[in-house]
Structures are given as C-alpha cells and as structure tokens.
Specification:
The complex is a heterodimer of chains A (246) and B (107). Chain A is mainly alpha-helical and 246 residues long. Chain A is 62% helix and 0% strand. Chain A is elongated. Chain A starts with 24 loop residues before the first helix and ends with a helix. With 107 residues, chain B is an all-alpha fold. Chain B contains four helices and no strands. In chain B, α1 packs antiparallel against α2. Chain B is flat. The chains are: A mainly alpha (246), B mainly alpha (107). The interface between A and B is large, with 59 and 54 residues.
Chain lengths: 246, 107
C-alpha cells in the first residue's frame, strides 16, 4: 500500500487530523448544505418580491378591498379562515397558530439535543417524539390551508372580477395568476422540507429507541437533524413575514 | 430492562440550561405576538414593512445563534455561514429595483 496517504498529525495543522472549526465533518457539511438551501429559499422569496412589485398594489382603505386580477391582493384578506369556523373573517390567526406550532417543535428539538449531550436516552426519545408530533401537526395545518386556498371561498364579496372561485396554477380568485403559483411553489417547497424533516427525525428517533446512539457513545446525529429542523423553522419565520404579513 | 441502564452514565439535567432554552422560546413567541400587534394596529406602509423585517431578523438571530448553537461556535464557522448571505442582500436590491422597473414599463 505504498500509495495510500497516511495522516500524520504532527507539526503543521495543514497535515490533517485537526478540526480548525471545532465541529465534526458531518456537522460542517450540514451547515454548508443549509447555507445552500438558504440561497434557494432566498431566491424564491426574492422572486416573490420581484413579481409582487411588478404588479400594481391595491390603493385605498382595507375595508373597501375586493379581489381582482388587476392588482396584488392584501394577504390578510386572503388568509382569513380557520378550521371549524365558517364564514368568519379571522385574518392570519391560523397562520399564527402554525407559526407557534413550528416554534414549539423547534424548542422540543433543542431539548432533545440537550438530553443527547447528557446521554439521557429516555429524554431524547420523549422530546424527539414531541418534535415529530409538532411537525405532523404543522403538515396537517398546511394541508387544510392548501385545501381551503384551492377550493376558495363562497363569500360573495370575495369572488374576484373573473368570477372564478378557488385557485389553480393558471387562475385564481385572489389576484394575478402568479399569486397562486408563488403560493403553491414557496409554501409547497417549505412544506416538503417539513415533510422530509419529519421523516429524517423519525429515522433518528427509531435509531435512538433501538440503542444505536448509545452503542456509538454519542448523540451527534440528533444534533445534525436538529440543525435541519431549526432551519425549517427559520425558513417559516421568513415565509410568514414576506408571504403573510407584508 | 436492567441491561438498558447498565453502563451508560446519564448526567442530570442542568436547570439553568433548560431555563435558558425556554427563555429563548418565550422571546420568539413574544416577538411573533408583537408582529401580530403591528399587523392589526398599524396601517400598511414602508415603516410597517421595515418593522416586520427588523423583527424577523431578531427572530432569525435567536433561532440561528441559540437553537442552532451558531453563536457558540468558532468565529471561522460563524463567518463562513454568515458572510455568504451578503449575496442575498445584493440580490434583494437588484431584484426589487428590477421589479419596480417592470411595473413602470407594463402599467
């Protein structure tokens, strides 16, 4: 094996075997993956800004607002429904609940990572399970949000100038066709991240349960999936602001 | 289930650490509540948009620095994650400018 590189950890730090950033390879790669993912989401949200600014905004009092293809809709007039309460104007309440659920599931993930540092298998299991439940709840909420957005609303004043109810990729009752397309694309892309996050969390939860991490001697894998999960929460914070609030 | 806790030493939880995690969670919830306050208590406009963006960055700071633990990592790691985001700032400015130019041409 004359050609095999041998790592000599002596003298110069450039010879390998040291961690200049004091983070493991896996954790660093997760950070750089998240950085690239952050670029993707930034590009999507900035595209939303570009397209929104290239449409006229609604001028006038918010109480006079009606849906039209002529201008960009006011988000709080679009997202004003919550499950089981029909026909009541409750702007942004449901999205607020979703935000709160995701932040809470982020907190339980931090608690799982903290328990992992203490080698406390039982606590890791408990907090990871709460995280998974939080993620699934968020996905359920998003499914309802999408269904409501696609089906549309039957309140007369909310029906737009083209008399089309609901939304699809080429047409929607709320505003210009790009409005619905961007809604599907951005919240869909984020929702898919949540979905894969739940799947990854479940795999790691399973491994914790059967004792893989205990045998390995550390719970770093929980930290890595934790980074991904927090990132999903972070993206939602931005989607919430740029899509729903502004 | 004897063998399960045979040789792994569980370190007891540090109350201060747990408290700190919940404190950050409280801050995030509070900032979201403040955002709601502005969403309903203030007319739309540039000032409100600026406040929303500022509060979002506050939330992002707490999530990245505390929950993702980046604030406690090496400086080299912090900057290799944060500095590339300057490209995003650049993209925001050019595409917002482009957007208003398109509006001028089309309408």
């Amino acid at each position: 094996m004359a050609n095999t590189a041998v790592v000599v950890n002596e003298g110069s730090p450039w010879r390998g075997g040291v961690e200049p950033m004091k983070a493991s390879y896996g954790k660093l790669m997760m950070w750089f993956f998240l950085l690239s993912d952050a670029f993707t989401f930034s590009a999507l949200l900035i595209t939303y800004g570009l397209i929104r600014y290239s449409h006229p905004a609604f001028e006038g009092a918010i109480s006079d607002f009606a849906f039209s293809q002529e201008y960009w809709p006011i988000p709080e007039m679009v997202y004003d429904a919550i499950p089981f309460v029909h026909g009541v104007h409750l702007p942004l309440v449901f999205v607020g609940i979703m935000t709160f659920i995701l932040i809470l599931s982020s907190v339980t993930m931090v608690l799982a990572v903290e328990a992992g540092h203490r080698m406390d298998k039982k606590a890791v299991e408990k907090w990871m399970l709460w995280t998974i439940i939080g993620g699934l709840t968020f996905l359920g909420c998003q499914a309802w949000e999408w269904a409501h957005f696609i089906e549309g609303t039957d309140i007369a004043k909310n029906v737009a100038s083209n008399n089309f109810i609901g939304a699809n990729l080429s047409m929607n009752q709320y505003g210009p066709s790009n409005f619905a397309a961007l809604f599907f694309f951005i919240t869909g892309f984020h929702g898919f991240h949540v979905f894969s996050g739940v799947m990854i969390n479940f795999i790691i939860f399973y491994q914790v349960t059967v004792g893989v991490m205990e045998k390995r001697g550390h719970y770093e894998m929980v930290e890595k999936v934790g980074l991904y999960w927090h990132f999903v929460d972070l993206v939602w914070v931005f989607v919430f602001t740029f899509f729903y609030l502004i | 289930m004897e063998q399960e806790n045979s040789n792994v030493q569980v370190i007891p939880a540090d109350k201060d650490k747990i408290k700190k995690i919940w404190r950050v969670a409280g801050i995030l919830a509070l900032v979201t509540a403040i955002e709601f306050g502005f969403a309903f208590g203030m007319a739309a406009g540039d000032v409100r948009t600026f406040i929303f963006i500022f509060l979002t960055i506050v939330k992002a700071f707490y999530i990245v620095a505390e929950f993702m633990h980046l604030g406690h990592e090496r400086k080299s790691l912090i900057y290799s994650v944060i500095l590339p985001m300057l490209f995003v700032v650049f993209l925001i400015f050019i595409l917002m400018y482009q957007g208003s130019a398109i509006l001028d041409v089309l309408h």
